[in-house]
């Protein structure tokens, strides 16, 4: 089916807007590619240093008779999502040797967990860790001894950071290899209910801890559809994963087979062969539009609005919040995965998963079908599923019907006519709201404001019983320049309790919310941020605010608000401790959320 005219119009506008930076980027990548395999240009001494510890692979590396694969890994064993990566390098080396190549761990990148740091000082490093990861990936590949690369990463900032880093070496092929989700544990909705009971003082910490441990119980990604699993979706829609590989659980034969194939595929795409496919040719404007479509169709994480903008700019492509909003208006919601439903990603995968969603979107002309991917040309390849047949990995046609229509639906009978995210703009500035999990009766909230300069103060007011009526909680000075733009997910139980009492409630902030949030309306990423003189700094307690996710507006209804002086906040207490003092240069140079909240100055 032909591409929907509106989707083509959005794409054409992005291509035109990006013409100059994209052309400059591709020119750099073509120049790098023209040099040929980089290690051939190193001195003998340089090569000896690079191969000294390569053991049985030394001979191949020294003679240059096979491709050399660089492994960039986010392994650590504190994070369940990344613990499986401990054994991946051995699998990748063996697979490379099986096709006459070699593989070396090029370097590691940090990987932090927003779940661990929610409400803690470490959360203020979270967003900045993305750009640290990009730089660390650049350092890992800077030795120029690799013909292709594989990237091992899953969670919130890790995949976006790795994509940015990969594009700095965009003349190399790149395959992203996931670890997969943990097996299903305590249902996410049950876990959320225990959290609300604890916030309301209706259960103790022992019961809370038991519920959390039952939910997060083994290796793999958290099973709700937050930022980590949205990243995995994105890598399939944009062609950097092997088809059907995102949601295969760790420590299984299929997971190991897909990992090994990732190494073989990456080497097959290098300039040493006949199917040279650098990552700069995969991540073009159409690929990013396909990624936006996937984000809306699955009700993905709000964090990806920031990350996709930054990822695109790393390759010279300029996305705007309006692009996301227009795609959202065009694309229906086809998935119900917690918090947008009761299912987890394992249930989603079993019901048809990403392959079925891609198939349905292709039927509706809502994806560019002709993009280049690591599997070959065309997204139809991503409607297939991997199988082990006599011990060999093969791909077969995936299901063309939903195996559970409460989890995955069709283009003809979507869960909602539009996507999961909405751009907001008005007298309070510009922001975004995730609406896929918000009931329609909460899409418009008009209520008096209560203003706070920290989430701790907001929670203290809740505990003191101060929220007795309808309220829009404003938490400001939470933007990237102020304190690194932390997620404010620890406010979710409090806000959900108020909403459950029948109060009209919403959140307005220049910070972020968890990619798993959504049942309470939240206008987030508000720009300009308070520390930059945004109108959110002029809100006072009692101001009547209006958040309208239907019309896409965010307003302070007090006519005199714009004439008020800007509020200020003493932020110095949050600029040191837990490593925050090391990130002063990042706070000083970071851009706005709407341009990707990046320190790279694109």
UniProtKB/TrEMBL annotation:
Every Dihydroxy-acid/6-phosphogluconate dehydratase C-terminal domain range: 406-597
EC nos: 4.2.1.12
Keyword Phosphoprotein: no
GO molecular function: 4 iron, 4 sulfur cluster binding; metal ion binding; phosphogluconate dehydratase activity
SUPFAM superfamilies, per the entry: IlvD/EDD N-terminal domain-like, LeuD/IlvD-like
Gene3D superfamilies: IlvD/EDD C-terminal domain-like
Gene Ontology terms describing biological process: D-gluconate metabolic process; Entner-Doudoroff pathway through 6-phosphogluconate
Pathway(s): Carbohydrate metabolism; Entner-Doudoroff pathway
Gene Ontology cellular-component annotations: cytosol
Entry's cofactor comment: Binds 1 [4Fe-4S] cluster.
Reaction(s) this enzyme catalyzes, per UniProt: 6-phospho-D-gluconate = 2-dehydro-3-deoxy-6-phospho-D-gluconate + H2O
Binding site for [4Fe-4S] cluster: 155, 222
Signal sequence segment: none
Alphabetically ordered keywords of this record: 4Fe-4S, Carbohydrate metabolism, Gluconate utilization, Iron, Iron-sulfur, Lyase, Metal-binding
Residue span, Dihydroxy-acid/6-phosphogluconate dehydratase N-terminal domain: 69-380
Cofactor list: [4Fe-4S] cluster
This protein's record includes keyword Zinc-finger: no
Known function: Catalyzes the dehydration of 6-phospho-D-gluconate to 2-dehydro-3-deoxy-6-phospho-D-gluconate.
Family: Belongs to the IlvD/Edd family.
Protein name per the record: Phosphogluconate dehydratase
């Amino acid at each position: 089916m032909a591409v929907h005219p509106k989707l083509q119009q959005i794409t054409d506008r992005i291509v035109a807007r990006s013409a100059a930076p994209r052309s400059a980027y591709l020119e750099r990548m073509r120049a790098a590619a023209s040099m040929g395999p980089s290690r051939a240009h190193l001195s003998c001494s340089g090569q000896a240093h690079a191969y000294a510890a390569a053991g049985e692979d030394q001979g191949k590396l020294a003679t240059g008779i096979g491709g050399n694969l660089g492994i960039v890994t986010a392994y650590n064993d504190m994070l369940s999502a990344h613990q499986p990566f401990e054994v991946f390098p051995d699998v990748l080396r063996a697979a490379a040797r099986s096709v006459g190549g070699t593989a070396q761990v090029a370097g590691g990148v940090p990987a932090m967990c927003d779940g661990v740091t929610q409400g803690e000082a470490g959360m203020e490093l979270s967003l900045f860790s993305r750009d640290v990861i990009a730089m660390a990936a650049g350092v890992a590949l800077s030795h120029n001894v690799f013909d292709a690369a594989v990237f091992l990463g899953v969670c919130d900032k890790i995949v976006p950071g790795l994509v940015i880093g990969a594009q700095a070496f965009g003349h190399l092929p790149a395959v992203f290899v996931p670890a997969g989700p943990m097996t299903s544990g305590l249902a996410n909705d049950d876990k959320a209910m225990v959290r609300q009971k604890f916030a309301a003082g209706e259960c103790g910490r022992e019961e809370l801890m038991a519920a959390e441990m039952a939910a997060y119980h083994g290796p793999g990604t958290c099973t709700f559809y937050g930022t980590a699993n949205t990243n995995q979706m994105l890598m399939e829609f944009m062609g950097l994963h092997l088809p059907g590989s995102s949601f295969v659980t760790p420590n299984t034969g299929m997971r190991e087979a897909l990992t090994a194939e990732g190494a073989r595929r990456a080497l097959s795409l290098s300039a040493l062969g006949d199917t040279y496919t650098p990552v700069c040719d995969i991540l073009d404007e159409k690929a990013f539009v396909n990624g936006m479509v996937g984000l809306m169709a699955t009700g993905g994480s709000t964090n990806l609005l920031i990350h996709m903008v930054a990822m695109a700019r790393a390759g010279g492509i300029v996305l705007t919040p309006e692009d996301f909003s227009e795609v959202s208006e065009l694309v229906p919601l086809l998935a119900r995965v917690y918090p947008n439903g009761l299912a987890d990603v394992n249930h989603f995968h079993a019901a048809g998963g990403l392959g079925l969603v891609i198939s349905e979107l292709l039927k509706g002309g809502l994806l560019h079908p002709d993009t280049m991917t690591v599997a070959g040309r065309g997204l139809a390849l991503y409607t297939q599923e991997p199988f082990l047949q006599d011990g060999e990995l093969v791909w077969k046609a995936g299901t063309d019907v939903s195996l559970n229509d409460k989890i995955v639906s069709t283009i003809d009978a979507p869960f909602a006519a539009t996507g999961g995210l909405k751009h907001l703009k008005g007298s309070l500035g510009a922001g975004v709201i995730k609406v896929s999990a918000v009931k329609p009766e909460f899409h418009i909230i008009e209520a008096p404001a209560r203003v706070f300069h920290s989430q701790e103060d907001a929670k203290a007011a809740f505990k003191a019983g101060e929220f007795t009526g309808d309220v829009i909680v404003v938490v400001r000075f939470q933007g990237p320049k102020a304190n690194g733009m932390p997620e404010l997910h620890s406010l979710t139980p409090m806000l959900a309790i108020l909403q459950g009492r029948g109060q009209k409630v919403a959140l307005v902030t220049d910070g972020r919310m968890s990619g798993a949030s959504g049942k309470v309306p939240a206008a987030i990423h508000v720009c300009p941020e308070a520390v930059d003189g945004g109108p959110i700094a002029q809100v006072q307690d009692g101001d009547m605010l209006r958040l309208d996710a239907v019309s896409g507006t965010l307003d302070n209804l007090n006519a005199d608000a714009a004439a008020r002086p800007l509020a200020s906040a003493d932020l110095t207490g949050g600029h040191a401790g837990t490593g925050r003092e090391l990130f002063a240069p990042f706070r000083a140079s970071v851009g706005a959320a709407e341009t990707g909240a990046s320190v790279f100055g694109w």
